[in-house]
């Protein structure tokens, strides 16, 4: 590795992969839970068969079509799901959001102890490399990123090994006035050690923040994922919500659908209060293009509404969702309310809300699960919230700590899918299958939306 | 103990690394300060040096570095010349004023070679030009 070949650019060389640099310490010493390993190795046919046994109305051919789908744009995704139940104990995995270019590798125990690069290698070998091999452009390889250096150094080192060539690792920060990455007529260039622009034939992208105009549509440089995946819903909750609606309409006769909390889109600032009444005194307000837990507000009181209103712009439109409740209370609408199933109570009886991050990628077989982990909330579902504590403590699961450098996170709330933690989640293979099928449907919906918006394309060119 | 002027043979790539002090001295103590505004650089080099038995603290800005200097005693500082709020020579002066025995390696970028003389005048012990190969930097550190 050559550090700082130019400002914010490092040259990663074959042989640079160091597991301790690309996984959280806890994960390095963990062993994947056998049920999770079993799930990750299930064939599409097994998952389809099982999903239909769990959802007898579901059409098997339609599910298989979705699992074997080859996305044009959205070939690497991460879905956040929550395990919920209703008044009658009908449990579901609900889609909270779907992200293009997601994090997750650093929290995933090795599936095969003999493959030291784990999920990094599966993603690069089975998704990125086949695309690059068929892409007829000249130039070097690059990883461009704006967050999460721990995983992005890992991706760069894996690409260097898989392709046996050096890889430019370039930070493309939105606030950088002179970024080391530029595009000319759709071709990407990165600044090299002589401060000259180096041509890039293919880039692995972990640029997750606006402005999206930094990345051209239909670029000459192959990019995983291209910006179209973000614009079609991969980084915009409102556009994604529209794509899910289209999907649900299209597949309603097939007995399948993307399950999300009840959602209202394009809600003006001044109408947010009205929605709090419509939803029975609780809701979630989301800034449509926010991520990493920023710009999401859980509201269970007038005070929390006032706080949320003080934090967001009066000029924007918002996405409002039904809150998944902590506990049943008198007055809740039994036909519409959903509750967190929560973790298995610990020895003090505390059960916490949690989410599942399910990362998947498009391979020659279709969509495959790649990495999975959970994050739990900070305060239990089944204890009264102390005076002055925000409900986000009960419902929010994001691990990011403000000012993070990629190495700082709330470790005590990270729930690995390993032998120690997985059992505490109360999940089984059926939930993992249901979650994966929900996630695959969300990816399908967003990719179809991208095709509708930007046109059909061959993902390899 | 051998006198080390150039701690390694000329490299395949063009790289400038000079040890300015004609001293027969090896780093036998191990607390290092890295000051560099690129967090990835800091973390990768920190991990590399930690694996090589050094204790490392890092700062991404001059102000932050000065706070660490106030509250710590370092055997070596690896300072980037270009920082967002000051330059590496400013920090070098503060370090040497506090503890003259602290060794200093100044890092510069392509085109910054002209500052080497100034660095020597202010007491820098070595000067390395980016890009930095951690293994080669370790040789320089061991040669101080």
From TrEMBL, chain A:
Species, as recorded: Mongoliibacter ruber
Protein name per its UniProtKB record: Uncharacterized protein
Tree of life domain: Bacteria
From TrEMBL, chain B:
Location of the Response regulatory domain: 31-144
Entry-annotated residues carrying 4-aspartylphosphate: 80
InterPro entries per record: Bact_response_regulator, CheY-like_superfamily, Sig_transdc_resp-reg_receiver
Superkingdom: Bacteria
Protein name: Response regulator receiver domain-containing protein
GO biological process: phosphorelay signal transduction system
Keywords: Phosphoprotein
């Amino acid at each position: 590795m050559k550090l700082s070949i130019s400002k914010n650019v490092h040259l990663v060389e074959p042989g640079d992969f160091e597991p301790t640099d690309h996984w959280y310490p806890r994960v390095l010493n963990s062993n994947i839970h056998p049920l999770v390993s079993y799930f990750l190795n299930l064939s599409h046919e097994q998952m389809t068969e099982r999903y239909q046994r769990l959802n007898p109305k579901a059409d098997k051919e339609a599910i298989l079509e979705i699992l074997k789908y080859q996305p044009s744009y959205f070939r690497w995704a991460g879905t956040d799901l929550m395990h919920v139940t209703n008044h009658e104990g009908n449990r579901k995995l609900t889609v909270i959001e779907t992200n293009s270019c997601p994090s997750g590798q650093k929290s995933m125990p090795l599936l095969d102890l003999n493959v030291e690069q784990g999920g990094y290698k599966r993603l690069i070998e089975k998704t990125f490399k086949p695309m690059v091999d068929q892409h007829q452009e000249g130039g070097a390889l690059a990883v461009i990123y704006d967050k999460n250096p721990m995983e992005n150094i890992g991706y760069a080192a894996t690409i260097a090994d898989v392709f046996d060539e050096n890889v430019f690792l370039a930070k493309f920060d939105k606030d950088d006035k002179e970024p080391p990455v530029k595009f000319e007529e759709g071709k990407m260039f990165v600044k090299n050690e002589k401060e000259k622009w180096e041509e890039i034939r293919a880039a692995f992208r972990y640029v997750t923040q606006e402005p999206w105009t930094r990345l051209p549509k239909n670029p000459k440089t192959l990019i995983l994922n291209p910006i179209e995946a973000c614009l079609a819903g991969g980084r915009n909750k409102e556009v994604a919500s529209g794509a899910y609606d289209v999907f649900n309409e299209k597949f309603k006769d097939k007995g399948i659908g993307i399950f999300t909390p009840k959602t209202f889109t394009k809600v003006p600032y001044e109408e947010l209060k009205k929605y709090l009444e419509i939803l029975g005194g609780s809701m979630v307000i989301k800034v449509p293009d926010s991520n990493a837990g920023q710009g999401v507000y859980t509201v269970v009181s007038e005070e929390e509404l006032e706080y949320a209103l003080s934090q967001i712009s009066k000029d924007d439109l918002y996405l409002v969702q039904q809150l998944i409740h902590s506990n049943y209370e008198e007055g809740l609408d039994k036909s519409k309310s959903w509750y967190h199933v929560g973790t298995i109570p610990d020895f003090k009886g505390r059960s916490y809300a949690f989410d599942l991050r399910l990362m998947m990628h498009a391979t020659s077989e279709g969509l495959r699960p790649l990495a999975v982990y959970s994050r739990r909330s900070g305060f239990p579902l089944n204890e009264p919230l102390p005076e002055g504590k925000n409900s986000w403590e009960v419902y929010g699961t994001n691990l990011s700590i403000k000012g993070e450098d990629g190495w700082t996170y709330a470790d005590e709330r990270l729930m690995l899918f390993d032998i120690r933690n997985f059992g505490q989640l109360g999940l089984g293979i059926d939930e993992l299958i249901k979650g994966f099928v929900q996630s695959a449907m969300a990816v399908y919906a967003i990719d179809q939306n991208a095709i509708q918006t930007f046109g059909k394309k061959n993902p390899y060119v | 103990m051998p006198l080390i002027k150039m701690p390694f043979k000329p490299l395949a790539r063009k790289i400038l690394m000079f040890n300015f002090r004609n001293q027969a001295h090896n780093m036998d103590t191990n607390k290092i300060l890295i000051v560099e505004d690129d967090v990835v650089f800091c973390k990768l080099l920190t991990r590399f040096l930690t694996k090589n038995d050094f204790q490392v603290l890092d700062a991404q800005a001059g102000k932050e570095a000065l706070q660490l200097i106030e509250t710590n005693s370092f055997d070596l500082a690896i300072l980037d010349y270009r920082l967002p709020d000051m330059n590496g020579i400013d920090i070098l002066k503060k370090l040497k004023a506090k503890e003259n025995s602290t060794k200093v390696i100044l890092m510069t970028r392509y085109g910054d070679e002209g500052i080497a003389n100034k660095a020597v005048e202010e007491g820098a012990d070595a000067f390395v030009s980016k890009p930095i190969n951690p293994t080669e930097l370790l040789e320089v550190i061991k040669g101080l």
